[in-house]
Amino acid sequence: MRLDRFLSNFPDFSRLDARLLLAAGRIRVDGRPVLDGRFEIREFHRVELDERLLQAGKPARYFMLYKPSSHVSATEHPEHPTVLDLLDEPDKHELHLGGRLDLTTTGLLLITNDGHWSRRLTLPGSKQPKVYHVETEQPIGTEYVETFARGLYFAFEDLTTLPAQLEILDTHSARLTLHEGRYHQVKRMFGHFRNRVVRLHRESIGPLKLDPHMTPGDYRSLTEAEVACF
Ligand code: URA
Question: Which domains does the chain have, with CATH numbers?
Fold first, then answer.
């Protein structure tokens, strides 16, 4: 953005004020006076009026990542590479995850620097459906469908899970839709039937599907329409 535009966007400066401040040499960019309003400022420029810092607002950033099973859903980890290591972006310390997946779980993960947006995704009341593709060690029984739809009691949290929809795809695989995100929820639900989950993959969160062109470890920015889903 041009420096004069940047200045006149501040509610306390008119366009004339901005021009006068520039002409008087009172505006500094990265410590140097800049007199020319056409100067292009970038996100990381430090703009000052006398001793006052006029920081440019950091643009919001939103990414979808295809989490591979090798990377942990965390911003730092002592043992494993983190999903942030997969991003070639500046200022990664400003980013956080909109929800988590277990280490070996693959699929859709959202990453942003917009705390309001990620809170809308992750708040327990938000009830954004999350769809998982599940593969199990033992055959999946038809009785699972009703049990998951009724809800399962989790003694540790003293709660009953919200009704979840199970679509059995074949003997050892299914698609499960959850409307909440409890700790290890999918594994614990199948664990109720002593059936170990051997592969777990998140396909979608709300209306947002993992981009079919992506492979594990890929990421891309969300489109405006995708950001507006939440
Ligand atoms: N449920 C699980 O058990 N693990 C995940 O990673 C996500 C949901």
Answer: 3-55 (3.10.290.10), 62-227 (3.30.2350.10)
